[in-house]
Specification:
This protein is an alpha+beta fold and about 200 residues long. Helices cover about 25% and strands about 30% of the residues. The protein is built from 4 helices and 14 strands. The strands form 4 sheets. The chain has a 6-stranded mixed β-sheet with strand order 3-6-9-10-11-12. A 4-stranded mixed β-sheet has the order 5-4-8-7, with no helix packed on it. The chain has a two-stranded antiparallel sheet with strand order 1-2. Helix 3 links the parallel strand 9 and strand 10. Helix 2 runs antiparallel to helix 4. The chain is globular, with a radius of gyration of 16 Å. About 35% of the residues are buried.
Length: about 200
Amino acid sequence: MSAAPVERGHGERPLIAEARRIMERLPGRRVEIIGGQILVTPSPDVARSRALKKVTGPLTAAGLDDSETEIHQGIGVWLPSGPEDYAIPDLCLVESDIDAHLIENNSYDPAVFRLVLEVTSSNWKTDLQAKVSAYADARIPVYVIVDRKHQRLHVLTDPTNGDYETHRIHAPGELVTLPDSIGAKVTLDVTEILKAGQTKES
């Protein structure tokens, strides 16, 4: 299903080599390659971590961080959109045999990802546009976006031809049940997640 990890010279992977140089110069930044372009995301803030906790809790309570699946943060997914493309979602739900599916550059075969989730930051357009196409191309079944810019929660499903056929946008006050395809019944409280993702005034 996936290729074994292969070390390649930087001359054969110029974008990955440059991405690594950026990570060395800017520790804490998330560096990804999507559509043949290097994207650099600011270091995460504590509000992002709080929002992730509000999502991780229900996933864990449903038994999804157990035997068949695992919940992780900051795990790379290899993308079919370009020869060096990969993304690092804020949170993902993956098959427990993920170790056997390493492709390259600490990134794994998208076939083992059941769900990816992003919490928007200052470059929110990437999560709402470029990553929609990238994750759909990779056929990741469920993409969730905690949209802090517009105070909405997006749930995208049914990836087809570089887009998601179903894109539901949820406002504060709603409870959202994620698709059964993730492996358990999980309901998210939109208000709770968005409130946790707000930066507190000092």
